[in-house]
Structures are given as C-alpha cells and as structure tokens.
C-alpha cells in the first residue's frame, strides 16, 4: 500500500513539474514577444500539446524523446514558422530530435512533426521486430523516419509522386543513415494504361490529382499499380495520397492483394460516396476497422 502511494506521489510530482516547466516557457515567451497573433497561436497550440502530453500513451518506443524535449522542439518550430522562412527549390535544413532534415518550409515541418512524432498518428504494434511497411505518400520522409524510430529493423517501401518532395525524401533517408528502405518517385493509381498523370499543389502536404482551383504548381508524374509491388505479407500499409486511396484499394482488391495486408492506417479525403465501397472491400477482405477523426485504422483480428 505504501509503495502504491509513493508511486502515485512520484507520478503527481512528475506531472506538476512538467506543467511548471511548460508554464514557465509560455510565460517567458509571452514576455519576450510583441506579436499578439503569434502569441495567441503559440498559446492555443501549446495548450493542445500539453493536453496530448498528459494523456496516457499506448505507443512508446526505445529512445523516444521526452516530453520536455518534444515541447522545446514544438516551441522552436512554432516560432520559426511564425517568423517565416525562405522557400526555394533547395529547401531548408534543420536538426530535430537528432535527425538531419531537409524540408520546404517550417510550416510543413511543424505540421508533420506534430502529427507524426507528437500525436503519433502512424503508431502501430507489430508482431515482429522487422515489419514490412508500405508507405504510400511518403512526402519528405517523416513517416519513414518515425517507422524506423519505432522499428529500426523495419523493411520499408515508399511512394512519393512529387519530384521536389522525392528529392528531399531521398536526402533525408541518406543523411539519417536509414537502411532497408526503397522509395519510388511514382503516383499510385488503378489504371495500368495511364503511364503519367498531373499532380496539382505538388511539393506540399496537400498535393492532389484533382484540380480544385487555380494553381501554378503542378507536375506531370509517372504512375504505378501498388498491386504489382505486393507479393509478400505486409505488416502495415500506411496511405495518405490525397483522394486517390479509393482507386488504389480497388486495384488491390481486384487483384486479390489485400489478403497479404495485416494492418492499414489511412487518411481519407473527399469520400463523395466512395467510403461505403471502401468499407465493403474491407469487409470482404476480413478487416475490422474504425475511424478516428479523418484516419481509418483497419486490421485483421487474430485467429
């Protein structure tokens, strides 16, 4: 009983200490800045960060940064984002969580770090230490870096259509010494007859195959069928391909390749009635699934 009380007291002290440090940093930043808009964004964003930090974390990995380090990185990125950065073809370089990163701008990096390393939207439990992961929509490689942090022995195959993002993706893989990773500069479709398509808003976190308005940023990119790359068990299929996911899953379903996939983490976009067809494919392929915000988690129950 005494041990339980002491353990509870230590936990309370840790939480209170963390909140005091965070509160102190917020106060110092508030005193140091005269930008009300930036300060308001900082406080709102930091409140969400603090709330997430105090939640019970189901996924932890060896060498994961501590809460204080995560918060300091959060502060750094928020203010560098607010200060703006020169965006060019060569990108911007920085060091985050011990990783050497090349990225288009701090707004994109902050968004990716928040989703992937803070909220850990792609965290999953593998049955083995060397899972085979397919990363459809690798962007600049933050998800691949996260997977390698969780499972250093993972074998990863990534797809990224944007030439600009792909250049940074390859650079981030090389500069961080990742092994067991193969990436392809291709867009995934379900049409074997079409070899090239136009990617709009290329090089951003919201690239799309659909032209939704006037844009000066587009690329003509090569295409591929994901089904032609799957011939072995896939522990995780992660997908974030801005609206093309339904066509890609139709390709996998039609070619009986979903039988190889154990887990799916997918961001869905503009369903327009297609989501029921997607769930029908999941049902017929033996998946159980749930939706959290705009992410679908699908898995095959243990037999």
What layout of secondary structure does this protein have?
Layout: H1 2-32, H2 36-54, H3 67-83, E1 92-96, E2 99-103, H4 106-118, E3 132-136, H5 142-150, E4 155-159, H6 163-175, E5 181-184, E6 187-189, E7 196-200, E8 218-225, E9 236-239, H7 245-254, E10 263-267, H8 275-284, E11 288-292, E12 295-299
Features:
303 residues; Rossmann fold; 2 domains; 7-stranded mixed sheet; 3-stranded mixed sheet; 40% helix; 19% strand
In short:
The chain has 303 residues and is an alpha/beta fold. The chain has eight helices and twelve strands. The protein starts with a helix and ends with a strand.
Written overview of the protein:
With 303 residues, the protein is of the alpha/beta class. The chain folds into 2 domains: 2-117, no CATH class; 123-190 and 224-299, 3-Layer(aba) Sandwich (Rossmann fold), CATH 3.40.50.150. 40% of the residues lie in helices and 19% in strands. The strands form 3 sheets. The chain has a 7-stranded mixed beta sheet, sandwiched between helices. Strands 6-8-7 form a 3-stranded mixed beta sheet. A two-stranded antiparallel ribbon has the order 1-2. A hairpin with a 2-residue loop joins β11 and β12. α7 (245-254) packs parallel to α8. The longest helix has 31 residues, at 2-32.
The CATH homologous superfamily name of the largest domain equals: Vaccinia Virus protein VP39
Mean pLDDT: 80
Q: Quote the beta fraction.
A: 15-25%
Major sheet: order of its strands?
5-4-3-9-10-12-11
Number of domains: 2
H-E order:
HHHEEHEHEHEEEEEHEHEE
- Please identify the oligomeric state: single chain
Overall, the morphology is globular
What would you say the CATH architecture of the largest domain is? Answer: 3-Layer(aba) Sandwich
> Helix content range of the residues, please?
40-55%
Major sheet, described briefly? 7 strands, mixed
Alpha-carbon distance between the two ends: 39 Å
Q: What is the CATH class designation of the largest domain?
A: Alpha Beta
Secondary-structure-derived class? alpha/beta
Q: Low-confidence spans: pLDDT under 50, at least 5 residues?
A: 30-37
CATH topology call of the largest domain: Rossmann fold
